[in-house]
Every structure is written in C-alpha cells, then in structure tokens.
Amino acid sequence: SLSNLNRLDAAERQLQTGLDEARSVLGPTHATTLKLSETLALVWLEQGRYSEAIALLQEVVDEMARSGREDAPDYDYVRAQNNLGYAYMSREDYVAAQPHIAKALVAIEQRGVKIPDDEYASLLSNNAQVLHDLGELDAADVAYRRAQALLETMYPEGSRDIAITLNGRASLARDRGQGEEALVLMRESVEMRRRVYRGDHPVVAFG
Hints:
The protein is mostly helical. Helix content is about 75%, strand content about 0%. It has 9 helices and no strands. It has helices spanning about 1-25, 30-45, 50-65, 75-90, 95-110, 115-135, 135-155, 160-175, 180-195. α4 packs antiparallel against α5. The two termini are about 25 Å apart.
C-alpha cells in the first residue's frame, strides 16, 4: 500500500542518516554501525532491493568474521547470518542461502549460542525451506518438524507461523509423492489459519 511504502521510505531515510553518522563518529566496525547496517538492509529487503540488501548484509558478516566472531560466535553473528540467508531466499537463491543458514545453526547447536525461541524457530523454518528447495527432502522433513515442535511449545493455541509450517510440510509431502499426507497437512494449515484469524482474514481463502 501507499502508506506502507511511505513508512519504508521514511525508515530508510532515518536509518541511512543514522548509519552515515555512526560510520563517521564510531567507525565502520563499531557494533552500533553494524546493527544500523543490518537494519537498513532489512528495510531494503522489504522494498525489493535485494542486491543492495545482500551486499550490505555481506559487509556486516565479513566484518564480524574479520573480528573473530566466526570462531567465537555470539547472538549478533547468528542473527546476521540468518538475515543474510533469508535475503538470498527472498531472491530464491537457495544455494547461496544454505551456507549462511548452516553457520547460524552450527553456532547455536554446536557452539552453544543462545537466541530467543521465536528467532530460533524462524531459523529452523528457513533451514527447512532451503533444504526443501535444494531437493534434500528427508532432511527438510526433519527440519520442518523441529520448527513446528518449537512453535507449538511457544503458541499452544496456534499461530500464523505454525500454519505456514504446516503448509510447507504439505508441499514437501506432495513433492515426496505422499498425496494423502499432503492433503491432511493442508487441511490442518487452513484450519489453523481459521482459528488464528477467526475466519475473516483473506489469507484463509488462499489455504
């Protein structure tokens, strides 16, 4: 909508001004500068400026690697890797997305980095989608199930994200030749959306 475009344009201007000031005063490697760069890149993603967003997120990840955070990862490193992977996914470049999603998962599951559950669920969902689109169907099934299990502990009454995950599992089942399971999962996804949106949201019609 026009109001959303205006909101994004205003956010971009504000973030660009803040980033320019941070680079000048704090330097390009300061944590505040990197955070502003990452946030601006996410706005560019919403605007459909994928190449610019990817380039800026890559700068952030590269700077973190130079400062040793690839060897000693932290929450900011995981978030930046996931965001860069998601940016590539937005451009449907799943081959390029995969290593960034994988690095974020390794940091959490092998290096002990802690992130909020909702962000971990998002990362698991991104991983499932990447594996699915790369044709690693068995691994994608495991990833979708892990994402769904975590989401269900967070939202026992249901959520939009659970509905999306069920839809992804339905698509995966169809690709694996499991037509009956695909139909069951699709119905569960539609029913979840009805519960979440109380049947009056347009997304229900596209289940």
